[in-house]
Design goal:
The chain has helices at 2-15, 47-59, 75-79, 88-95, 108-125; strands at residues 21-22, 38-42, 97-100. The protein is mainly alpha-helical and 127 residues long. It has a single domain (2-125), classed as Aspartate Aminotransferase, domain 1 (Alpha-Beta Complex), CATH 3.90.1150.10. The chain has a 3-stranded antiparallel beta sheet with strand order 1-2-3. Helix 2 (47-59) crosses helix 5 (108-125). The longest helix is centred in the C-terminal third of the chain and has 18 residues, at 108-125. The protein starts with a helix and ends with a helix.
């Protein structure tokens, strides 16, 4: 956990200066993250913008992902009658989320590359 915590702390410190970055809470007075994910959310974007950002990050040879796909978006639950319109907060969080890599063996150079790719992609697509 220590290395993953360091990775998350690096991302946090690197991204906190950007007004568009909604950073995950990693610790509060009662809880601490397991540091298995760094779910960055981008303020004020659509799902389409998020997808374009992800593609631009991929174009820089950096792999990111989307976690926490809402249950109503999964076919089993859609078939049971669940509708995404009934969960606007869930959809909002999902549509703006990009999970950054948190591998235990990421080098300093790789971490810098992730940040550079994310910042470049976000700033390209938020205007």
């Amino acid at each position: 956990m220590i290395k993953r915590k360091q990775v998350c702390e690096f991302y946090y410190k690197s991204l906190q200066r950007y007004s568009w970055a909604e950073l995950p809470v990693m610790q509060d007075e009662d809880r601490e993250s397991s540091y298995h994910l760094f779910p960055l959310r981008i303020k004020g974007i659509s799902e389409e913008q998020r997808d374009a950002i992800i593609q631009s990050v991929f174009d820089e040879d950096v792999s990111v992902n989307v976690h926490f796909i809402p249950i109503p978006m999964l076919s089993f639950y859609k078939n049971k009658g669940y509708q995404m319109d009934d969960y606007p907060v869930t959809y909002d969080n999902f549509s703006r989320e990009i999970s950054l890599p948190v591998f235990y063996n990421l080098s300093e150079e790789q971490l810098q590359r992730v940040i550079a790719a994310v910042v470049k992609a976000v700033e390209k697509h938020i205007h």
